[in-house]
Amino acid sequence: MRTCEEPRPPNGQSPIALAAGQSEYGFAEKVVEGMFIVVNSITIKIHSKAFHASFELWQLQGYSVNPNWQQSDLRLTRITDPQRGEVLTFKELTWQTLRIEADATDNGDQDPVTTPLRLITNQGRIQISLKRRTKDCNVVASKLMFLLDDLLWVLTDSQLKAMMKYAESLSEAMEKSAQQRKSLAPESVQVSHDLDV
Description:
Order of helices and strands: HHEEEEEEH
Region (Disordered): 177-197
Protein name: URFB1 protein
GO molecular function, one term: histone deacetylase binding
Pfam family, one: BLTP3A_B
Organism: Atlantisia rogersi (Inaccessible Island rail)
């Protein structure tokens, strides 16, 4: 993966829905949501102008859960609001070991940061809530929670400095994305304002 200097255009409709020949939340989405995924290992490499990072996951599992974060009947893993035209779904990802390593790139700074940042966790999970519009499957809101059982991390001064540079680099990309969202928002705000009058 590579971070973008400029934000990409917004995603269109759900590729699952398009492949199934439908334009709204329906059977194809429910089938994909009902899948139980088990992956032995995953390696992800990320390149940015400020750093290179790698994520390694072992024994990853992904599945749907109910609002209490428990596995149950799939019909209880989503809440549909026909009045608002939205559906709320709940997912959980668990893993046995996660290793994250980030190292600064040589970007010509006078004070280069070269100490790699390493983080190892055992028995962690991510809980994901997604709110989507049923008419086009676009995500309206989302929430992620990271829950870690064990955290093995040695943090030195130079690593803390490196972490600040990585965060600064990512915040620039996130800020550009937020500006893009705001520039596209006035059209939809104007439409909703006209409807209220």
